[in-house]
Write a structure and sequence with these properties.
alpha+beta; 4-stranded antiparallel beta sheet; 15 helices
Protein backbone atom coordinates (compact mmCIF):
# COMPACT_ATOMS: atom_id res chain seq x y z
CA UNK A 1 0.00 0.00 0.00
CA UNK A 2 1.40 3.41 -0.94
CA UNK A 3 2.27 5.96 1.79
CA UNK A 4 -0.38 8.24 0.31
CA UNK A 5 -3.11 5.65 0.85
CA UNK A 6 -1.88 4.82 4.36
CA UNK A 7 -1.93 8.50 5.27
CA UNK A 8 -5.49 8.76 3.94
CA UNK A 9 -6.64 5.69 5.90
CA UNK A 10 -5.10 6.97 9.16
CA UNK A 11 -6.45 10.50 8.84
CA UNK A 12 -9.72 11.51 10.49
CA UNK A 13 -12.18 14.21 9.55
CA UNK A 14 -14.42 15.39 12.37
CA UNK A 15 -18.09 15.52 11.39
CA UNK A 16 -20.85 16.88 13.61
CA UNK A 17 -23.59 14.34 14.27
CA UNK A 18 -26.18 17.08 13.70
CA UNK A 19 -24.86 17.51 10.16
CA UNK A 20 -25.35 13.80 9.49
CA UNK A 21 -28.93 14.09 10.72
CA UNK A 22 -29.48 17.06 8.40
CA UNK A 23 -28.17 15.04 5.43
CA UNK A 24 -30.64 12.25 6.20
CA UNK A 25 -33.39 14.82 6.75
CA UNK A 26 -32.72 16.40 3.36
CA UNK A 27 -32.91 12.96 1.71
CA UNK A 28 -36.25 12.30 3.42
CA UNK A 29 -37.63 15.70 2.40
CA UNK A 30 -36.57 15.30 -1.24
CA UNK A 31 -38.22 11.89 -1.45
CA UNK A 32 -41.51 12.98 0.09
CA UNK A 33 -41.11 10.98 3.34
CA UNK A 34 -42.70 13.76 5.40
CA UNK A 35 -43.84 11.72 8.40
CA UNK A 36 -40.43 10.09 8.78
CA UNK A 37 -38.82 13.53 8.49
CA UNK A 38 -41.07 14.96 11.20
CA UNK A 39 -40.26 12.02 13.52
CA UNK A 40 -36.51 12.38 12.92
CA UNK A 41 -36.56 16.11 13.67
CA UNK A 42 -38.75 15.62 16.73
CA UNK A 43 -36.62 12.86 18.27
CA UNK A 44 -33.23 14.40 17.42
CA UNK A 45 -34.10 18.03 18.09
CA UNK A 46 -32.23 18.92 14.88
CA UNK A 47 -34.14 20.96 12.31
CA UNK A 48 -33.30 20.72 8.60
CA UNK A 49 -33.70 24.50 8.14
CA UNK A 50 -32.56 24.30 4.53
CA UNK A 51 -34.07 24.80 1.10
CA UNK A 52 -32.65 23.63 -2.20
CA UNK A 53 -33.24 26.97 -3.90
CA UNK A 54 -33.58 30.07 -1.72
CA UNK A 55 -33.96 32.32 -4.76
CA UNK A 56 -36.92 30.26 -6.02
CA UNK A 57 -38.51 30.38 -2.55
CA UNK A 58 -38.16 34.17 -2.50
CA UNK A 59 -39.69 34.37 -5.97
CA UNK A 60 -42.63 32.21 -4.85
CA UNK A 61 -43.22 34.50 -1.85
CA UNK A 62 -43.13 37.62 -4.02
CA UNK A 63 -45.41 35.90 -6.53
CA UNK A 64 -47.91 34.86 -3.86
CA UNK A 65 -47.59 31.15 -4.57
CA UNK A 66 -48.55 30.23 -1.03
CA UNK A 67 -49.14 26.45 -1.37
CA UNK A 68 -45.59 26.07 -2.73
CA UNK A 69 -44.17 28.43 -0.09
CA UNK A 70 -45.81 26.65 2.85
CA UNK A 71 -44.68 23.26 1.55
CA UNK A 72 -41.06 24.43 1.24
CA UNK A 73 -40.85 26.01 4.69
CA UNK A 74 -42.61 23.11 6.44
CA UNK A 75 -39.26 21.74 7.66
CA UNK A 76 -37.61 25.15 8.19
CA UNK A 77 -37.23 26.72 11.64
CA UNK A 78 -37.97 30.45 11.26
CA UNK A 79 -37.73 33.01 14.04
CA UNK A 80 -41.04 33.70 15.74
CA UNK A 81 -41.21 37.23 14.30
CA UNK A 82 -40.72 36.05 10.71
CA UNK A 83 -43.06 33.08 11.08
CA UNK A 84 -45.78 35.27 12.63
CA UNK A 85 -45.53 37.84 9.82
CA UNK A 86 -45.48 35.21 7.09
CA UNK A 87 -48.49 33.20 8.26
CA UNK A 88 -50.40 36.39 9.15
CA UNK A 89 -49.87 37.63 5.59
CA UNK A 90 -51.07 34.31 4.15
CA UNK A 91 -54.28 34.65 6.17
CA UNK A 92 -54.75 38.21 4.89
CA UNK A 93 -54.33 37.20 1.26
CA UNK A 94 -56.65 34.24 1.61
CA UNK A 95 -59.25 36.56 3.16
CA UNK A 96 -58.82 39.05 0.32
CA UNK A 97 -59.34 36.25 -2.21
CA UNK A 98 -62.47 35.19 -0.29
CA UNK A 99 -60.84 31.84 0.54
CA UNK A 100 -62.13 32.14 4.07
CA UNK A 101 -62.11 28.40 4.81
CA UNK A 102 -58.40 28.20 3.92
CA UNK A 103 -57.65 31.38 5.87
CA UNK A 104 -59.33 30.01 8.98
CA UNK A 105 -57.53 26.67 8.62
CA UNK A 106 -54.17 28.49 8.55
CA UNK A 107 -55.20 30.55 11.57
CA UNK A 108 -56.38 27.61 13.65
CA UNK A 109 -54.12 24.73 12.66
CA UNK A 110 -50.61 26.01 11.94
CA UNK A 111 -48.02 25.89 14.76
CA UNK A 112 -46.90 29.47 14.07
CA UNK A 113 -50.39 30.91 14.55
CA UNK A 114 -51.02 28.80 17.64
CA UNK A 115 -47.79 30.16 19.10
CA UNK A 116 -48.92 33.70 18.25
CA UNK A 117 -52.19 33.04 20.07
CA UNK A 118 -50.22 32.38 23.27
CA UNK A 119 -47.44 34.95 22.93
CA UNK A 120 -49.27 37.79 21.14
CA UNK A 121 -52.97 37.33 21.88
CA UNK A 122 -53.95 40.87 20.85
CA UNK A 123 -52.42 40.46 17.40
CA UNK A 124 -54.06 37.04 17.02
CA UNK A 125 -57.40 38.54 18.10
CA UNK A 126 -57.20 41.27 15.43
CA UNK A 127 -56.70 38.63 12.72
CA UNK A 128 -59.57 36.57 14.10
CA UNK A 129 -61.88 39.62 14.09
CA UNK A 130 -60.90 40.43 10.50
CA UNK A 131 -61.95 36.95 9.36
CA UNK A 132 -65.17 37.24 11.31
CA UNK A 133 -66.01 40.56 9.62
CA UNK A 134 -65.23 39.16 6.18
CA UNK A 135 -67.49 36.20 6.91
CA UNK A 136 -70.37 38.50 7.90
CA UNK A 137 -69.92 40.81 4.89
CA UNK A 138 -70.48 37.95 2.44
CA UNK A 139 -68.46 39.49 -0.38
CA UNK A 140 -68.06 43.01 1.01
CA UNK A 141 -65.06 45.22 0.33
CA UNK A 142 -61.64 44.19 1.62
CA UNK A 143 -59.77 47.22 2.96
CA UNK A 144 -56.33 46.38 1.61
CA UNK A 145 -54.69 49.63 2.72
CA UNK A 146 -55.88 49.15 6.27
CA UNK A 147 -54.74 45.52 6.35
CA UNK A 148 -51.44 45.68 4.48
CA UNK A 149 -50.39 49.18 5.52
CA UNK A 150 -48.49 51.71 3.43
CA UNK A 151 -46.31 49.05 1.80
CA UNK A 152 -49.31 47.36 0.20
CA UNK A 153 -49.55 43.67 -0.64
CA UNK A 154 -46.53 43.68 -3.00
CA UNK A 155 -44.36 45.59 -0.53
CA UNK A 156 -45.17 43.22 2.31
CA UNK A 157 -44.42 40.23 0.09
CA UNK A 158 -41.01 41.67 -0.78
CA UNK A 159 -40.13 42.28 2.88
CA UNK A 160 -41.25 38.78 3.81
CA UNK A 161 -39.15 37.28 1.01
CA UNK A 162 -36.07 39.14 2.27
CA UNK A 163 -36.70 38.07 5.88
CA UNK A 164 -37.21 34.40 5.03
CA UNK A 165 -34.21 34.30 2.71
CA UNK A 166 -32.03 35.68 5.50
CA UNK A 167 -33.00 32.80 7.81
CA UNK A 168 -32.80 29.72 5.58
CA UNK A 169 -29.69 27.90 4.41
CA UNK A 170 -29.36 27.30 0.69
CA UNK A 171 -27.87 23.85 0.02
CA UNK A 172 -27.36 21.83 -3.11
CA UNK A 173 -29.89 19.00 -3.62
CA UNK A 174 -29.11 15.32 -2.95
CA UNK A 175 -26.10 16.04 -0.71
CA UNK A 176 -26.18 12.59 0.94
CA UNK A 177 -26.11 10.68 -2.35
CA UNK A 178 -23.49 13.00 -3.82
CA UNK A 179 -21.19 12.56 -0.80
CA UNK A 180 -21.55 8.77 -0.95
CA UNK A 181 -20.86 8.83 -4.68
CA UNK A 182 -17.72 10.97 -4.26
CA UNK A 183 -16.44 8.71 -1.45
CA UNK A 184 -16.90 5.61 -3.60
CA UNK A 185 -15.14 7.25 -6.56
CA UNK A 186 -12.16 8.01 -4.30
CA UNK A 187 -12.06 4.43 -3.02
CA UNK A 188 -12.09 3.21 -6.63
CA UNK A 189 -9.31 5.66 -7.43
CA UNK A 190 -7.03 4.30 -4.69
CA UNK A 191 -7.90 0.66 -5.43
CA UNK A 192 -10.08 -0.16 -2.40
CA UNK A 193 -13.05 -0.75 -4.72
CA UNK A 194 -12.82 -2.30 -8.19
CA UNK A 195 -13.93 -0.17 -11.16
CA UNK A 196 -17.57 0.03 -12.21
CA UNK A 197 -20.50 2.38 -11.81
CA UNK A 198 -23.12 0.31 -9.96
CA UNK A 199 -22.82 -0.23 -6.23
CA UNK A 200 -25.00 -2.22 -3.84
CA UNK A 201 -24.45 -0.38 -0.55
CA UNK A 202 -27.03 -2.29 1.46
CA UNK A 203 -26.30 -5.99 1.42
CA UNK A 204 -22.98 -6.30 -0.37
CA UNK A 205 -24.39 -9.00 -2.65
CA UNK A 206 -23.44 -9.72 -6.22
CA UNK A 207 -20.24 -10.27 -8.13
CA UNK A 208 -17.10 -8.20 -7.90
CA UNK A 209 -16.53 -6.10 -10.98
CA UNK A 210 -14.44 -6.69 -14.00
CA UNK A 211 -12.22 -9.63 -13.06
CA UNK A 212 -10.49 -7.87 -10.17
CA UNK A 213 -8.33 -9.81 -7.74
CA UNK A 214 -9.96 -11.65 -4.84
CA UNK A 215 -8.31 -9.24 -2.40
CA UNK A 216 -10.14 -6.29 -3.95
CA UNK A 217 -13.44 -8.15 -3.80
CA UNK A 218 -12.84 -8.99 -0.14
CA UNK A 219 -12.06 -5.37 0.65
CA UNK A 220 -15.23 -4.18 -1.01
CA UNK A 221 -17.30 -6.78 0.85
CA UNK A 222 -15.98 -5.51 4.18
CA UNK A 223 -17.21 -2.08 3.22
CA UNK A 224 -20.67 -3.49 2.48
CA UNK A 225 -20.44 -2.30 -1.11
CA UNK A 226 -19.93 -4.49 -4.13
CA UNK A 227 -19.67 -3.00 -7.58
CA UNK A 228 -21.66 -4.67 -10.33
CA UNK A 229 -19.64 -4.23 -13.47
CA UNK A 230 -21.36 -2.22 -16.16
CA UNK A 231 -20.28 -3.12 -19.66
CA UNK A 232 -18.92 -0.46 -21.94
CA UNK A 233 -22.07 0.20 -23.88
CA UNK A 234 -22.48 -1.44 -27.27
CA UNK A 235 -25.52 -2.03 -29.45
CA UNK A 236 -27.07 -5.49 -28.82
CA UNK A 237 -27.33 -6.90 -32.35
CA UNK A 238 -26.47 -10.60 -32.08
CA UNK A 239 -29.21 -13.08 -31.22
CA UNK A 240 -27.97 -15.51 -28.57
CA UNK A 241 -31.15 -17.10 -27.16
CA UNK A 242 -34.68 -17.71 -28.39
CA UNK A 243 -37.35 -18.59 -25.82
CA UNK A 244 -40.40 -20.31 -27.31
CA UNK A 245 -43.75 -19.96 -25.57
CA UNK A 246 -46.91 -21.93 -26.25
CA UNK A 247 -48.36 -21.98 -29.77
CA UNK A 248 -51.48 -20.06 -28.75
CA UNK A 249 -49.88 -17.35 -26.64
CA UNK A 250 -47.22 -14.66 -26.83
CA UNK A 251 -45.59 -12.31 -24.34
CA UNK A 252 -47.29 -8.91 -24.08
CA UNK A 253 -44.56 -7.49 -21.83
CA UNK A 254 -41.05 -8.24 -20.65
CA UNK A 255 -38.81 -6.80 -17.90
CA UNK A 256 -35.32 -7.36 -16.50
CA UNK A 257 -34.82 -7.48 -12.74
CA UNK A 258 -32.66 -4.60 -11.40
CA UNK A 259 -30.06 -7.10 -10.13
CA UNK A 260 -29.66 -8.27 -13.73
CA UNK A 261 -30.27 -11.95 -12.97
CA UNK A 262 -33.73 -12.51 -14.42
CA UNK A 263 -35.88 -11.53 -17.37
CA UNK A 264 -39.61 -11.91 -16.74
CA UNK A 265 -42.40 -12.23 -19.30
CA UNK A 266 -46.14 -11.68 -19.01
CA UNK A 267 -48.24 -13.50 -21.62
CA UNK A 268 -51.66 -13.44 -23.22
CA UNK A 269 -52.53 -16.69 -21.41
CA UNK A 270 -52.03 -14.91 -18.07
CA UNK A 271 -48.80 -16.68 -17.08
CA UNK A 272 -45.82 -14.81 -15.64
CA UNK A 273 -42.56 -16.68 -16.15
CA UNK A 274 -39.06 -15.95 -14.86
CA UNK A 275 -36.15 -16.78 -17.17
CA UNK A 276 -32.43 -16.96 -16.55
CA UNK A 277 -30.69 -14.22 -18.53
CA UNK A 278 -27.59 -16.26 -19.35
CA UNK A 279 -29.18 -19.57 -20.36
CA UNK A 280 -32.54 -18.33 -21.63
CA UNK A 281 -34.18 -21.20 -19.72
CA UNK A 282 -36.82 -21.16 -17.00
CA UNK A 283 -35.04 -20.10 -13.81
CA UNK A 284 -34.17 -23.26 -11.87
CA UNK A 285 -33.46 -21.52 -8.56
CA UNK A 286 -37.14 -20.64 -8.11
CA UNK A 287 -38.69 -23.86 -6.80
CA UNK A 288 -42.29 -22.90 -7.48
CA UNK A 289 -41.54 -22.74 -11.20
CA UNK A 290 -40.00 -26.21 -11.19
CA UNK A 291 -43.20 -27.40 -9.50
CA UNK A 292 -45.18 -25.78 -12.33
CA UNK A 293 -46.84 -23.43 -9.84
CA UNK A 294 -46.44 -20.25 -11.84
CA UNK A 295 -47.46 -16.71 -11.02
CA UNK A 296 -50.50 -15.86 -13.13
CA UNK A 297 -53.60 -13.77 -13.85
CA UNK A 298 -56.88 -15.03 -15.27
CA UNK A 299 -56.49 -12.61 -18.17
CA UNK A 300 -53.61 -11.38 -20.38
CA UNK A 301 -50.74 -9.64 -18.60
CA UNK A 302 -50.04 -6.22 -20.09
CA UNK A 303 -47.42 -4.71 -17.77
CA UNK A 304 -44.61 -5.69 -15.39
CA UNK A 305 -42.32 -3.81 -13.00
CA UNK A 306 -39.74 -4.66 -10.34
CA UNK A 307 -39.04 -2.99 -7.03
CA UNK A 308 -35.56 -1.50 -6.75
CA UNK A 309 -34.18 -4.43 -4.75
CA UNK A 310 -35.64 -7.01 -7.18
CA UNK A 311 -37.63 -8.67 -4.38
CA UNK A 312 -41.10 -7.64 -5.55
CA UNK A 313 -42.72 -7.93 -8.97
CA UNK A 314 -45.89 -6.05 -9.92
CA UNK A 315 -48.12 -7.14 -12.81
CA UNK A 316 -51.13 -5.53 -14.47
CA UNK A 317 -53.80 -7.32 -16.49
CA UNK A 318 -56.16 -6.56 -19.36
CA UNK A 319 -59.07 -6.44 -16.90
CA UNK A 320 -57.62 -3.65 -14.77
CA UNK A 321 -56.26 -5.87 -11.99
CA UNK A 322 -52.88 -5.58 -10.30
CA UNK A 323 -50.96 -8.19 -8.34
CA UNK A 324 -47.77 -7.76 -6.32
CA UNK A 325 -45.62 -10.88 -6.05
CA UNK A 326 -42.74 -11.96 -3.82
CA UNK A 327 -40.32 -13.15 -6.50
CA UNK A 328 -38.37 -15.58 -4.30
CA UNK A 329 -41.49 -17.57 -3.34
CA UNK A 330 -43.99 -16.75 -6.08
CA UNK A 331 -46.58 -15.77 -3.48
CA UNK A 332 -49.04 -12.96 -4.15
CA UNK A 333 -48.48 -10.28 -1.50
CA UNK A 334 -51.26 -7.90 -2.59
CA UNK A 335 -54.18 -7.84 -5.03
CA UNK A 336 -55.98 -4.82 -6.46
CA UNK A 337 -59.12 -6.25 -8.01
CA UNK A 338 -60.39 -2.92 -9.37
CA UNK A 339 -57.25 -0.87 -9.86
CA UNK A 340 -58.64 0.35 -13.20
CA UNK A 341 -61.70 -0.21 -15.37
CA UNK A 342 -59.48 -0.85 -18.40
CA UNK A 343 -56.23 -2.65 -19.15
CA UNK A 344 -53.22 -1.69 -17.01
CA UNK A 345 -50.64 -0.92 -19.70
CA UNK A 346 -47.96 0.69 -17.57
CA UNK A 347 -46.82 0.06 -14.00
CA UNK A 348 -43.97 1.45 -11.90
CA UNK A 349 -42.85 1.24 -8.25
CA UNK A 350 -42.20 4.37 -6.21
CA UNK A 351 -38.63 4.83 -4.98
CA UNK A 352 -39.40 3.36 -1.57
CA UNK A 353 -41.44 0.49 -3.09
CA UNK A 354 -44.52 1.34 -1.00
CA UNK A 355 -46.67 2.56 -3.90
CA UNK A 356 -47.44 1.72 -7.53
CA UNK A 357 -47.98 4.22 -10.33
CA UNK A 358 -50.14 2.83 -13.15
CA UNK A 359 -51.56 3.94 -16.51
CA UNK A 360 -54.61 2.46 -18.14
CA UNK A 361 -56.80 2.32 -21.19
CA UNK A 362 -59.56 3.79 -18.98
CA UNK A 363 -57.93 7.21 -19.67
CA UNK A 364 -56.49 7.62 -16.17
CA UNK A 365 -53.27 7.16 -14.24
CA UNK A 366 -53.40 6.21 -10.55
CA UNK A 367 -51.24 5.68 -7.48
CA UNK A 368 -51.95 2.64 -5.29
CA UNK A 369 -50.70 1.94 -1.75
CA UNK A 370 -49.20 -1.53 -1.46
CA UNK A 371 -49.67 -1.73 2.30
CA UNK A 372 -53.23 -0.39 2.35
CA UNK A 373 -54.35 -2.07 -0.88
CA UNK A 374 -56.17 1.12 -1.82
CA UNK A 375 -56.04 3.61 -4.68
CA UNK A 376 -54.50 6.78 -3.23
CA UNK A 377 -54.43 9.22 -6.17
CA UNK A 378 -56.05 9.56 -9.57
CA UNK A 379 -54.81 11.68 -12.46
CA UNK A 380 -57.79 12.30 -14.72
CA UNK A 381 -57.89 14.61 -17.74
CA UNK A 382 -56.78 12.72 -20.83
CA UNK A 383 -59.38 12.06 -23.52
CA UNK A 384 -57.93 8.76 -24.72
CA UNK A 385 -55.81 5.84 -23.50
CA UNK A 386 -53.00 6.67 -21.09
CA UNK A 387 -50.15 4.60 -22.52
CA UNK A 388 -47.46 5.39 -19.96
CA UNK A 389 -47.11 7.02 -16.55
CA UNK A 390 -43.82 7.70 -14.81
CA UNK A 391 -42.40 9.84 -12.06
CA UNK A 392 -40.34 12.78 -13.24
CA UNK A 393 -36.65 11.81 -13.10
CA UNK A 394 -35.07 12.88 -9.79
CA UNK A 395 -38.27 14.63 -8.71
CA UNK A 396 -41.18 12.53 -7.46
CA UNK A 397 -43.21 15.69 -6.82
CA UNK A 398 -44.42 15.35 -10.40
CA UNK A 399 -45.92 12.57 -12.50
CA UNK A 400 -45.69 12.52 -16.31
CA UNK A 401 -48.31 10.80 -18.45
CA UNK A 402 -48.35 10.00 -22.18
CA UNK A 403 -51.64 9.48 -23.99
CA UNK A 404 -53.15 8.50 -27.31
CA UNK A 405 -54.88 11.90 -27.28
CA UNK A 406 -51.53 13.31 -28.43
CA UNK A 407 -50.58 15.09 -25.21
CA UNK A 408 -48.09 14.75 -22.41
CA UNK A 409 -49.40 15.96 -19.06
CA UNK A 410 -47.49 16.95 -15.94
CA UNK A 411 -49.25 16.34 -12.61
CA UNK A 412 -48.56 17.39 -9.05
CA UNK A 413 -48.16 14.01 -7.36
CA UNK A 414 -49.51 15.31 -4.03
CA UNK A 415 -52.62 17.18 -5.21
CA UNK A 416 -53.30 15.26 -8.48
CA UNK A 417 -53.56 18.67 -10.17
CA UNK A 418 -52.53 18.93 -13.83
CA UNK A 419 -49.90 21.68 -13.93
CA UNK A 420 -49.00 21.44 -17.61
CA UNK A 421 -50.18 19.81 -20.84
CA UNK A 422 -48.51 19.95 -24.22
CA UNK A 423 -48.48 18.25 -27.61
CA UNK A 424 -44.97 17.36 -28.85
CA UNK A 425 -46.34 17.48 -32.40
CA UNK A 426 -48.47 20.67 -32.51
CA UNK A 427 -48.82 20.42 -36.29
CA UNK A 428 -50.95 17.26 -36.04
CA UNK A 429 -54.68 17.99 -36.36
CA UNK A 430 -55.94 15.21 -34.08
CA UNK A 431 -52.77 14.73 -32.06
CA UNK A 432 -50.20 12.05 -32.66
CA UNK A 433 -50.48 9.34 -29.95
CA UNK A 434 -47.68 9.34 -27.39
CA UNK A 435 -46.52 5.79 -26.70
CA UNK A 436 -43.79 6.19 -24.08
CA UNK A 437 -41.58 8.58 -22.09
CA UNK A 438 -37.94 7.59 -21.54
CA UNK A 439 -35.62 9.38 -19.13
CA UNK A 440 -32.12 9.84 -20.55
CA UNK A 441 -29.49 8.83 -17.93
CA UNK A 442 -26.73 11.36 -17.24
CA UNK A 443 -28.68 14.00 -19.12
CA UNK A 444 -31.50 16.29 -18.07
CA UNK A 445 -33.74 15.22 -20.93
CA UNK A 446 -36.75 13.00 -21.58
CA UNK A 447 -37.31 11.16 -24.85
CA UNK A 448 -40.96 11.43 -25.96
CA UNK A 449 -41.89 8.58 -28.32
CA UNK A 450 -44.83 9.25 -30.65
CA UNK A 451 -46.80 6.85 -32.88
CA UNK A 452 -45.11 8.40 -35.88
CA UNK A 453 -41.59 8.33 -37.36
CA UNK A 454 -40.51 10.96 -34.78
CA UNK A 455 -39.29 10.91 -31.20
CA UNK A 456 -38.73 14.22 -29.43
CA UNK A 457 -35.99 15.12 -26.98
CA UNK A 458 -37.39 17.48 -24.35
CA UNK A 459 -35.28 19.24 -21.66
CA UNK A 460 -36.31 18.25 -18.15
CA UNK A 461 -36.77 21.88 -17.12
CA UNK A 462 -39.48 22.31 -19.77
CA UNK A 463 -41.94 20.09 -17.90
CA UNK A 464 -42.21 22.45 -14.92
CA UNK A 465 -41.60 25.78 -16.67
CA UNK A 466 -44.03 28.19 -18.33
CA UNK A 467 -42.39 27.68 -21.73
CA UNK A 468 -44.42 26.44 -24.68
CA UNK A 469 -43.39 23.68 -27.07
CA UNK A 470 -41.54 25.28 -30.01
CA UNK A 471 -43.27 24.50 -33.30
CA UNK A 472 -39.99 24.77 -35.22
CA UNK A 473 -38.41 21.89 -33.31
CA UNK A 474 -35.12 20.68 -34.73
CA UNK A 475 -35.69 18.25 -37.59
CA UNK A 476 -33.08 15.55 -37.93
CA UNK A 477 -31.75 13.87 -41.02
CA UNK A 478 -29.02 11.36 -41.75
CA UNK A 479 -26.35 13.84 -42.78
CA UNK A 480 -23.23 14.33 -40.68
CA UNK A 481 -23.77 18.09 -40.51
CA UNK A 482 -27.24 17.73 -39.02
CA UNK A 483 -25.94 15.05 -36.65
CA UNK A 484 -23.45 17.58 -35.35
CA UNK A 485 -26.23 20.15 -35.05
CA UNK A 486 -28.32 17.66 -33.10
CA UNK A 487 -25.52 17.11 -30.62
CA UNK A 488 -25.13 20.82 -29.93
CA UNK A 489 -28.91 21.20 -29.83
CA UNK A 490 -29.23 18.52 -27.14
CA UNK A 491 -26.41 20.06 -25.16
CA UNK A 492 -28.05 23.50 -25.24
CA UNK A 493 -31.41 22.12 -24.10
CA UNK A 494 -33.17 22.84 -27.40
CA UNK A 495 -35.90 20.41 -28.41
CA UNK A 496 -34.61 17.87 -30.88
CA UNK A 497 -36.00 14.96 -32.91
CA UNK A 498 -35.01 11.44 -33.84
CA UNK A 499 -36.57 9.84 -36.92
CA UNK A 500 -37.02 6.32 -38.20
CA UNK A 501 -37.01 5.70 -41.93
CA UNK A 502 -40.70 6.16 -42.56
CA UNK A 503 -42.21 3.62 -40.15
CA UNK A 504 -44.13 4.49 -36.99
CA UNK A 505 -42.52 4.09 -33.56
CA UNK A 506 -44.27 1.55 -31.33
CA UNK A 507 -41.80 1.38 -28.45
CA UNK A 508 -38.30 2.37 -27.48
CA UNK A 509 -35.70 2.73 -24.75
CA UNK A 510 -32.50 4.50 -23.76
CA UNK A 511 -29.43 2.52 -22.69
CA UNK A 512 -28.63 2.43 -18.96
CA UNK A 513 -25.67 4.81 -19.27
CA UNK A 514 -27.44 7.06 -21.76
CA UNK A 515 -25.16 6.45 -24.71
CA UNK A 516 -27.70 4.91 -27.12
CA UNK A 517 -31.29 5.64 -28.14
CA UNK A 518 -33.34 2.69 -29.42
CA UNK A 519 -36.55 3.20 -31.42
CA UNK A 520 -38.69 0.19 -32.31
CA UNK A 521 -40.56 0.64 -35.58
CA UNK A 522 -43.78 -1.04 -36.65
CA UNK A 523 -41.66 -2.87 -39.24
CA UNK A 524 -40.15 -4.87 -36.30
CA UNK A 525 -36.81 -3.13 -36.81
CA UNK A 526 -34.78 -1.59 -34.03
CA UNK A 527 -33.33 1.78 -35.07
CA UNK A 528 -30.23 2.59 -33.02
CA UNK A 529 -28.68 6.04 -32.50
CA UNK A 530 -25.95 7.50 -30.38
CA UNK A 531 -27.31 10.09 -27.97
CA UNK A 532 -27.19 13.56 -29.54
CA UNK A 533 -26.52 12.15 -33.02
CA UNK A 534 -29.47 11.85 -35.41
CA UNK A 535 -27.80 9.61 -37.98
CA UNK A 536 -28.98 5.99 -37.63
CA UNK A 537 -25.98 4.04 -36.38
CA UNK A 538 -27.42 0.55 -36.74
CA UNK A 539 -30.63 -1.23 -37.76
CA UNK A 540 -31.49 -4.63 -36.29
CA UNK A 541 -34.39 -6.75 -37.58
CA UNK A 542 -35.69 -8.26 -34.34
CA UNK A 543 -38.51 -10.56 -35.56
CA UNK A 544 -40.36 -11.37 -38.76
CA UNK A 545 -43.73 -10.96 -37.03
CA UNK A 546 -44.87 -7.83 -35.21
CA UNK A 547 -42.75 -6.94 -32.16
CA UNK A 548 -44.86 -6.28 -29.07
CA UNK A 549 -42.39 -5.20 -26.38
CA UNK A 550 -38.71 -4.76 -25.56
CA UNK A 551 -36.58 -4.25 -22.47
CA UNK A 552 -32.93 -3.45 -21.78
CA UNK A 553 -30.69 -5.14 -19.22
CA UNK A 554 -29.84 -2.72 -16.37
CA UNK A 555 -26.05 -2.94 -16.79
CA UNK A 556 -25.10 -5.38 -19.58
CA UNK A 557 -25.48 -5.02 -23.34
CA UNK A 558 -28.50 -7.32 -23.50
CA UNK A 559 -31.91 -6.62 -25.01
CA UNK A 560 -35.08 -8.71 -24.81
CA UNK A 561 -37.80 -8.51 -27.46
CA UNK A 562 -41.19 -10.22 -27.71
CA UNK A 563 -43.34 -10.86 -30.75
CA UNK A 564 -46.65 -12.19 -31.99
CA UNK A 565 -44.65 -15.17 -33.26
CA UNK A 566 -44.70 -16.55 -29.68
CA UNK A 567 -40.99 -16.04 -28.98
CA UNK A 568 -38.84 -13.98 -26.68
CA UNK A 569 -35.45 -13.19 -28.18
CA UNK A 570 -32.36 -12.20 -26.22
CA UNK A 571 -29.79 -10.08 -28.03
CA UNK A 572 -26.28 -9.03 -27.07
CA UNK A 573 -23.41 -7.14 -28.65
Amino acid sequence: VSPRVLEWRMSRVEVESSDVIRLVAQFLAENGLDRTLATLQDESGVELNTVSNAAALSADIEGGKWPAVLKQIGGVQLTAATAFSLYEHVVFEMAEARELTVARAVLLHTPAMQKMRVEQPQRYGRIERLLGEQQKQQGGAFHATMVYGKDGRAGRRKKLAEAVRGEVVNVRPSRLLNLISEALKWEQHIGVLPPGDRVDLFNGGGDAAGGQAAASAAQSSKLGAVVRSADQERIPRRLYKTIKLGKKSFAECVAFSPNGKYVVSGSTDGFIEVWDVKSGKISADLKYQLDDDLMMHKHPVHSLAFSRDSSLLASGSSQGRIKVWRLATGTCERKFKSAHSGAVVSIEFSKDSTQLLTASMDQTARVHGIRSGRTLKEFRGHTSYVNHATYMPNNHEFVLTASSDGTVKVWNSSTSECVKSFAPDPTSFKGTPIVRLCAVPRSRHVLVLTRSPRAYVVPLEFFTSNATMPVDAYSSSTSSSSASAASSSAASGKVNQYKTRGCDIVNGAVSSQGRFVYLLGDDSTLYCYEWGETEIKKQVKLHDAEVVALSLHPFHNVLASTSHDGTIKLWKK
